[in-house]
């Protein structure tokens, strides 16, 4: 069940029809925040890359030998129900996203 204020119809359609498919294809991953079995937030993200120049890699401390692309996190969509704003829901979801990205990044570089 979905909580009001975060685009319920679109979100429910996405979660029911697309989220698992894109995750199984390793295109994007979705983190869902639940409160009493009600969706109160979500973040859909994927691993991407940013093309860089050699000098850019040195400036930001990235090993330039990994190629001309820097692994990057792409946030496709995110939302938190209005009545759950400023309660740490978004922060907790983003922390989970960053942890997952760190694991995915290591896998992508191997």
The tally of strands reads 3
Global morphology = globular
Q: How much of the residues is beta strand, in percent? A: 25-35%
Low-pLDDT segments? none
Structural class by secondary-structure content: alpha+beta
Main pleated-sheet profile: 3 strands, antiparallel
Please provide a brief summary of the model.
The protein is an alpha+beta fold and 110 residues long.
Layout of SSEs?
Blueprint: H1 8-17, H2 19-24, E1 29-35, E2 38-51, H3 54-60, E3 69-80, H4 89-109
Antiparallel strand pairs: 1-2, 2-3
Which descriptors would you attach to this protein?
110 residues, 4 helices, globular
Overview of this protein structure:
It is a single chain. The chain is of the alpha+beta class. A hairpin with a 2-residue loop joins strand 1 (29-35) and strand 2 (38-51). The model has no long low-confidence stretch (mean pLDDT 76). The chain has helices spanning 8-17, 19-24, 54-60, 89-109; strands spanning 29-35, 38-51, 69-80. It is built from four helices and three strands, in the order H-H-E-E-H-E-H. 40% of the residues lie in helices and 30% in strands.
């Amino acid at each position: 069940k979905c909580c009001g204020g975060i685009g319920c119809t679109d979100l429910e359609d996405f979660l029911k029809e697309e989220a698992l498919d894109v995750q199984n294809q390793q295109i994007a991953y979705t983190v869902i925040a639940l409160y009493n079995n009600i969706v109160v937030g979500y973040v859909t993200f994927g691993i991407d890359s940013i093309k860089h120049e050699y000098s850019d890699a040195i400036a930001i401390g990235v090993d330039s030998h990994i190629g001309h692309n820097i692994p990057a996190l792409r946030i496709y969509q995110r939302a938190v129900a209005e009545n759950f704003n400023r309660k740490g829901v978004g922060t907790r979801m983003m922390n989970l996203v960053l942890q997952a990205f760190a694991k995915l990044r290591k896998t992508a570089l191997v």
